[in-house]
Every structure is written in C-alpha cells, then in structure tokens.
Design goal:
Subcellular location: Cytoplasm
Distance between the termini: 53 Å
Number of helices: 4
Protein name: Ribosome-recycling factor
Number of domains: 2
Function: Responsible for the release of ribosomes from messenger RNA at the termination of protein biosynthesis. May increase the efficiency of translation by recycling ribosomes from one round of translation to another.
Helix content: 40-55%
Number of strands: 6
CATH class of the largest domain: Mainly Alpha
Strand content: 15-25%
Shape: elongated
GO cellular component, one term: cytosol
GO molecular function: ribosomal large subunit binding
CATH superfamily of the largest domain: Ribosome-recycling factor
Structural class: alpha+beta
Strand order of the largest sheet: 3-4-6-5
CATH topology of the largest domain: Topoisomerase I, Chain A, domain 4
C-alpha cells in the first residue's frame, strides 16, 4: 500500500507520544490524593552541591504510615535546603524537622482542595494532549513534504495512520484524567 520511496516512521511518533503519556503519569503521581506516596516528591528538585537534584538523591524517602512521608537526609547541611524545596513546591505540606529526618504529615483533603487538584489534573492532561498534537503535526508535515514523491492514495493512507495514532493517545490521556479525577474526589 505504501510507496517504497516514502516510509513514515510511525515507531518514532509512537515513542514520542509514549513520552507525553509517561510525563502525564509522572505529573499525576505528584498530585496527592490524601494518601502518602513517595512518588509525590519526585518532581521536587533541591539545590544541592551547585546543581538541581531530585530529593531521592539527597536522602531516603519512606512511607512509614498511610498519612506520613519521611525523608532521612544523608548530609546534615542539606536538611534546610530540602525543607525549603518542599515548602516552595506547592504541595501544601508543612515539613516538620527531627534532626536529619524531615517528616511530612499528609493532611485530609477538603472538598475545595479536591476540586482544585481536579483542575490541576485537567491542566496536566491538556498539556499532554498538546504534546500529542505536536507530534501529530510533525508526522503530517513529514507526509506533506513527501507529497511530490508519493501518490495521493499513499498520502491519505499515511495521514490516516497518523490521525489514528493521535486519536488512540488522546483517548488514553482522557481515560487517565478521568481515572485520576475519580481518585481525587474519593473520600
């Protein structure tokens, strides 16, 4: 069906759309839903030794109980910087110090905070949709550039392949958002 001269790299487009989905899953993991999770600290970076470093590379992150996260900071001089990074992260958690251990009690979410988290999740999903659409645009541009070397039927075939791939990933973003919003609104 496809001309030998032009072969769109659907694997590359798929890989790039998978990247958008992986990014969305990471952002969703950072949204707290009232349960403690070590992954909620993943996006937080600490200014350590002259560079931005993930928290899990300056201390051990544990979840000793369902509503508590602890960080055992390895270097005493880093405790203040880790605490500052958590306060400025926008997670809405107030760190408590106990020597080199930083305790993060996870408060119950009220209705207003749940709605706010739902809106943040929707923004993350929209960013993922935009990323998927950008990959789609790149694929369509590749097909258009090859217009002179492929038949009109082949052009339509490749355009529909790119569109089908895009539709699949947009559905998957929407499903992930719906699932995350249900999790957030669960009391």
């Amino acid at each position: 069906m496809a001309d030998e001269e032009f072969e769109l790299d659907l694997d590359d487009l798929t890989r790039r759309m998978d990247g958008a989905m992986a990014s969305l899953r990471t952002e969703f993991a950072s949204l707290r839903t009232g349960r403690a999770s070590a992954s909620m600290l993943e996006p937080i970076m600490v200014e350590a030794y002259g560079q931005r470093t993930p928290i899990n590379q300056v201390g051990t992150v544990n979840v000793p109980e369902p509503r508590m996260v602890t960080i055992n900071v390895w270097d005493k001089s880093m405790v203040g910087k880790v605490e500052k990074a958590i306060r400025e992260s926008g997670l809405g958690i107030n760190p408590q110090l106990n020597g080199t251990i930083i305790m993060l009690p996870i408060p119950e979410l009220n209705e207003e905070r749940r709605r706010e988290l739902g809106r943040v999740a929707a923004q993350y999903a929209e960013s993922a949709r935009v990323a998927v659409r950008n990959v789609r645009r790149d694929g369509m541009d590749q097909v258009k550039k090859a217009k002179s070397s492929i038949s009109e039927d082949d052009q339509k075939y490749w355009e529909s392949e790119v569109q089908d791939l895009t539709d699949k990933y947009i559905k998957s973003v929407d499903a992930a958002l719906e699932s995350k919003q249900e999790e957030i609104m669960q009391v």
